[in-house]
Amino acid sequence: MKGKIYKGIGGFYYVHTPEGDYECRAKGIFRNRNEKPLVGDNAEISPVQDSEKENEGSVIRILPRKNQLIRPAVANVDQAVVIFALRHPDPNLNLLDRFLINMEQRDIPVTIFFNKVDLVQTSDSESSLEEEEILSEDRNAWKKKRARAKSIPE
Question: How many Cβ atoms from other residues are within 10 Å of residue 26's Cβ?
Answer without folding.
Answer: 21
